[in-house]
Amino acid sequence: MRTKAVAATTALLALGLTACGAEFTPGPGATTASAHYPVTVENCGEKLTFAQKPARVVTNDVNITELMLSLGLADRMAGYVMPDDKGRVDKVAWKDGYQQTQWLSKKVLTKEIALDAKADLVFAGWHYGFDEGSGVTPQAFKALGVDSYVLSESCRSGKGAERGVMDPLDALYTDLANLGAIFDVKDRADQLIAESRATIAAVPRPERRPSVFLYDSGQDKPYTAGKFAAADEIIAKAGGTNIMGDLADTWVTAGWESVVQRDPEVIVINNYATPGAEEKRKFLKSFPPLANVAAVRNDRIFVMDYVDLVESPRNPAAISTLADFLRTVPAR
User: Fold this and answer.
1) Is the pTM here over 0.85, yes or no?
2) Which residues, 6 or more positions from 18, have their beta carbon under 8 angstroms from its beta carbon?
3) What are phi and psi of 83, to 5 degrees?
4) What local confidence, expressed as pLDDT, does residue 16 receive?
5) Are residues 114 and 124 in contact, defined by beta-carbon separation less than 8 angstroms?
6) Which residues of the chain fall below pLDDT 70?
7) Are 306 and 272 in contact (CB under 8 A)?
8) DSSP string covering 69-103, please?
9) What is the pLDDT of residue 29?
């Protein structure tokens, strides 16, 4: 989701695809090579059936692209759509995957991009490429004969019952497991899920939970993370408390008065696009209403990349890194 400014032990391995909603349904007379197909997975409450392994996948944005790359699926991709500000990718274990597929567009996902790439599957999400306003939807692609898979984190998008469908990390594990089923890479998916769970489980329990404000963007009013955003669970797993965790929304506009009143001990900057992290830091430190806020007064401002704070295979490492920083925060 480009936010408003731009619009893992044997027991763990046993948590396989069934627990995450995928089921194998071999067809009549299936051979060893095709025994896994057709395969049906549950995606955002809908059953999706694949008669064969998709071969030309178009992904939208860095987090969704890296879900594919982290499973070694660059060879099943026709390409990806993402802005120039995808951030640094040279330190991720799957960095070579970016060189094995094509950067189709630095703008927004369109039906034309997918059709020109001869896509047989579009992997995007609501507010991560799919948008009813522009007509770029799973339904529209279906009418064109192209399958879609929706990022599970974005099942939250919408109103009413669509909120709170799945915790963000459960969404990550679900998508990894579903992709493992769809592309017949179950072992890779199980390993990555197990490693992710183990990384998060190894984060030390804090003696106290510092209060954290997630600053995405905005000067007149701050754009931040509510309780349904992936960032809320990332902060919680790292040992902090999101001061806007009472807002029943994903990414949401709040008021500076609320930030001042809740007096966060740490501010996490969501780094992407323009203005960059340093510009955001300068603004926060020079904005008069924040002068007496503990995080600003004590210069406890921590920068995280956009891809760390939305559903992605980087989440476990991001939680560990943020936890290291939060443990340096002294008691009030």
Assistant:
1) yes
2) none
3) -65, 170
4) 36
5) no
6) 1-34, 86-87, 159-161, 163-164
7) yes
8) HHTT-GGGEEEEE--TT----TTSTTGGGGGGS-E
9) 35
Are 308 and 234 in contact, with CB atoms under 8 Å apart? yes
| Residues near 143 by beta carbon (within 8 Å), at least 6 away in sequence | none
Question: For residue 206, what is the DSSP state?
Answer: P
Q: Do the Cβ atoms of 294 and 265 come closer than 8 Å? A: yes
CA pair distance 71, 271, nearest whole angstrom: 25
CA distance 232 to 98: 29
281, 301 in Cβ contact below 8 A?
A: yes
The answer to whether the CB of 79 falls within 8 A of the CB of 117 is yes
The Cβ-side half-sphere exposure at 16, using a 13 Å CA radius, reads: 10
* Amino acid identity for residue 107 in this structure: K
8 A C-beta contact, residue 234 and residue 266: no
CA distance 103 to 83: 10
pLDDT for the residue numbered 15: 35
Can you name the residues that pair with 41 across neighbouring β-strands?
A: 22, 48
In which residue are the tokens 């891809």 written?
A: 307
Are the C-beta atoms of 68 and 123 separated by less than 8 Å?
yes
Among candidate residues 189, 42, 66, the one with its CA nearest the CA of residue 128: 66
Q: Find where tokens 């939305």 sit.
A: 310
329 touches 206 (CB < 8 A): no
Distance CA 185, CA 181 (A): 7
C-alpha–C-alpha distance, residues 243 and 289, integer Å: 17
Buried b (16+ CB within 10 A) or exposed e, 18-27: eebbbebeee
